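Students often ask why we bother predicting the structure of a whole assembly rather than each chain alone. The short answer is interfaces. A chain on its own may look different once its partners are present, and contacts between molecules only exist in the joint model. In this exercise we take four input lines together and write out one structure for the complete complex. Read the inputs first and try to guess which parts will touch.
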Amino acid sequence: MTTYLERLPKHDKLFIPFIMSGDPTPELTIKLALLLEEAGASVLELGVPYSDPLADGPVIQRASKRALAHKTTITSTMELAGEMRRRGLKIPIILFTYFNPVLQLGEESFFALAKQNQVDGLLIPDLPYEESGRIREKCSEHAITYISLVAPTSKDRMNTITEHAQGFLYCISSLGVTGVRKEFSEELYAFLDEVKKKSNVPTAVGFGISESEHIQTLKPYCDGFVVGSALIKMIEQKEKQFKVDEEKTLHELKEQIEELISPLLAER
Amino acid sequence: MTTYLERLPKHDKLFIPFIMSGDPTPELTIKLALLLEEAGASVLELGVPYSDPLADGPVIQRASKRALAHKTTITSTMELAGEMRRRGLKIPIILFTYFNPVLQLGEESFFALAKQNQVDGLLIPDLPYEESGRIREKCSEHAITYISLVAPTSKDRMNTITEHAQGFLYCISSLGVTGVRKEFSEELYAFLDEVKKKSNVPTAVGFGISESEHIQTLKPYCDGFVVGSALIKMIEQKEKQFKVDEEKTLHELKEQIEELISPLLAER
Amino acid sequence: GRFGEFGGKYVPETLMLPLEELEQGLQEALKDPNFLEDYHYYLKEYSGRPTALTYAEKLSSRIGGAKIYLKREDLNHTGAHKINNAIGQALLAKRLGKKKIIAETGAGQHGVAAATVAAKFGLECKVFMGEEDIERQALNVFRMKLLGAEVIPATSGNKTLKDATNEAIRYWVQHCEDHFYMIGSVVGPHPYPYMVREFQRVIGEESKRQFQEREGGLPDKIVACVGGGSNAIGMFAPFVDDAVKLIGVEAAGKGIDTPLHAATLTKGTKGVIHGSLTYLIQDEHGQIIEPYSISAGLDYPGIGPEHAYLKDSNRVEYQSVTDEEALEALHILAKEEGIIPAIESAHALATAYKEAAKMPSDQTVLVCLSGRGDKDVHTLMNRMEGTVE
Amino acid sequence: GRFGEFGGKYVPETLMLPLEELEQGLQEALKDPNFLEDYHYYLKEYSGRPTALTYAEKLSSRIGGAKIYLKREDLNHTGAHKINNAIGQALLAKRLGKKKIIAETGAGQHGVAAATVAAKFGLECKVFMGEEDIERQALNVFRMKLLGAEVIPATSGNKTLKDATNEAIRYWVQHCEDHFYMIGSVVGPHPYPYMVREFQRVIGEESKRQFQEREGGLPDKIVACVGGGSNAIGMFAPFVDDAVKLIGVEAAGKGIDTPLHAATLTKGTKGVIHGSLTYLIQDEHGQIIEPYSISAGLDYPGIGPEHAYLKDSNRVEYQSVTDEEALEALHILAKEEGIIPAIESAHALATAYKEAAKMPSDQTVLVCLSGRGDKDVHTLMNRMEGTVE
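Now the answer. The structure tokens for the assembled complex follow.
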């Protein structure tokens, strides 16, 4: 199995898009993944829809709901990742899932499926460092990169988190659940500086990155960006359009994405 | 002023009808009084309508309501009694009123009006012996006969009540408020016997006398009968008829009454 | 059987014997340590007495004057002081060998209390309630039925409390041999006003003891709302001989200068209602006028005869409070203390705020919070639609 | 932060610091005599504790077995045990310098308790409540608003308690710097299950003392209903080391063999919900399933982690009771004792009757009557239309 690092394209700044497995349809999820790679994504965060996504804002909650309506599960999501590989996706795939689906699937099945479908990493938003010992161990046994999050409220915990960070370190751009935000606070810059200084892996800012100006502004303070809600919103708005003319819609979406991440592309 | 006793026709058995002043109209109340005298009434009980007639059953409550709608008051009732006299009514008139209207009118006005309108007696259903001292005194000053009630539950109180009875003694035929009843209990006969033995004035049975059979059955146990609800009910049922053909309706009513009290008339 | 000139027994002859038996039974019971022990046992272990005495700290500082204390009758089982009396009368009914009780109710609070004790003590219970009130207070009607009581609609008059009381008395007249009539307030013929006072005086007795413990003395003023007046009498009784200013608060409805009020002592005249000589709201011909208040527990045209006496003897001052003032007082208590009082009790609060504001901060005002406001939430919702958002 | 394998802190990184601060503040507070004194002061003088211990004499004789005692949490201010915890957490919030609180609520009981203490202690209060529940529980919504709280509709998921909790956690994540999250049951991430237990154990402590006074020993069995499980934990905690049989009762809804139940321990599997590892009702893919019970306070898909532990360690026996059985138990209590229990508490009663019937008359069963049924009267009316006449 190829590892996360081996798959990672050598970009200065990472673009890490988040999409929800099964949203708007499983087939489109695959096409979106390929499109994102083409548009310059460095890593793909592939979300497992969950009934109770308490770390997510309304946009991702709706995506979760749409995906669940297509009977998407953690298993089908990993199978979708496998299908992406078969269709040529090269960049690392990070499975984004709440802890409960992992628990229910069971460790053995989970890691078997991850391996089988060439999932590279795992991000569990409701599993803080203290609760993650066993799964980290298993991840490293199976060469799965375990992605950690760090928040402005992490404070004394930051050392521990940065010390154990793998792949990239997901920096929460503000207090809060995922969502689209307008402004960033002064404290954010200090926080990002501090994380970057301490981290041995690239730092990526997430939560609220919705405009190219955000990326432009924060670029000096980090190594990459996670774009979730803003992307899901674009997809959501095109839900009907996809049914009318899929190709054209995908093309338009790609242009929107390129516009959003233009400050990153400019450097490549 | 002529007294109660002087007005009393010398019948073996008394027929004491109750009508409500102002029901169905003040004018008809007068005509009903004259009709009742003609039909053999010994005494007329003339009711003052009251907002809260707690000793009366639904029939008399409704009569009260109709009378109040004609703005009947204790004053207008006594004036109606005066008008009855002017139109030739000879039999004693007993004013039946709850205590509160008397209180509000004031003693002085009350007795002045009673005298002026040749009211002969007073019956206050919510003024038991213990509360009636002052009004009895005033009644006797003004030569107004104060009618007392006695009930099967009076027991030890019966001696006091019979001792102070004037005019006639109103015997409550059963536990209860006024109304139309079907049967009488064994205890009733014993009660009536006892009252009759103790009383110095005629005893009259009331509450529930609605059929000639009642009168026939109870005749040996008392000196007369008060007929209230049954009579009011007859009047109530003819309310519309009165408007169509008053004379005929009065005639029919008279026949009904004569039928009801036939066991009494048979003895005269 | 009188308080000064007030009170008495203005009832049909049929009821005189039952009233005498009741009076005799009551006198014996009140002297019987077993009866009193039972009564206090159920107050404590069933109704949860003593009720709390709450110092309303935030409220007092908002009002900015005397310290305000609340006697929390709302914490009783069934949510108001009514249960004190219902327990007492139920035990007395049992003692007198009566297995069936009758009660009248307006908003349904006494009806619920009566139904409650009937269930608890194995009595059959009929509650008379105006047809209008049955419709307006569907929840309480349902509660009574759930408790096993029969709710009998009073269809006479205006079909409200006054008429329910008339109907209850009529029914009692007919069935007094085996029925006990459980009156809910300090009204009705003797010995009811006296009996209900004795069964409610626990409010004042506890308050006195609790206040002594907390403040080391007596309150300067005590305020209670007055409809029939049982919570007020219960609160005042143990303080009547003390140097404490007592204030009863009537419902001024839309204002005492309008026809829509229930301010019996302020605007009424002497007369007889439900067997008792007292003040009442009536017309010049002695016909009783239906009173008005937003509070279903205060819109009674009469008032307990002892209140009439306490007013005429100047021992208690009676004020009145409008619907609006009461609602404002309710809102203030809810927001400052987290307590939603019954609208009845809110009348007492409105006056207490006014009094406290005029007093120095080392003085104290004790308010009888006679019941909780949950029962009134529908009324409040209808009334304030859109203003609470 | 675990009860055996259960509990933990399965929360977004952002909440780890607030949870640590909370835990530390809690530990200090629970050792601070001033804090404890304040807590007990308000329990007594504000909420009216100790709540009564009622011997249900008529009920016991109808059931015909053990003597049944009721711990009357329904007599608390606001009508349920929820206020014990709300007072504790409000005092802790103040101690931690937080001026704003968040709470989630299902039927509205914890929301009302939170809004109440927010008013009493001068805190700003936001209550998250499912949009569905807001419609079904309009009266409680109005009560909260009257108390000055803001009620925020949760529009995600099925728009009920589970979703309101998700929304409250989301809001807390974004505003944890100045907001205190007041959870209403022994659920959520550590230290909540522990904290809420400590603030509810007064139920069991009082019961133990009162029972000792009345019966001179301990009860043979104790029964309490379990949704999240705070009244049960509060009742059980002081008895865990005693030779007393403890029984928790879950809602079996339409039957545990149907999909419509809330019997988490009976039918659930291990998983994570709202920050805690416990038993929950979920599908094979780990998606949480909306539970069902006629009782709005029991239809929670998870359960306090300590209950999961007490079940697996066999210290507590968990049974389940259907809607029908609970309603029948409610009716029986209403008619025999004049107490209308919350439908939640009626689940405990149903089991208590079954247990008591099997026991000799010299034994005793103690039931936690967690709240009053007034809030359920609408539900009961809809359900039983025509059957109570």
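Check your guess against this: Residues 9 and 292 of chain D are 26 Å apart (CA to CA).
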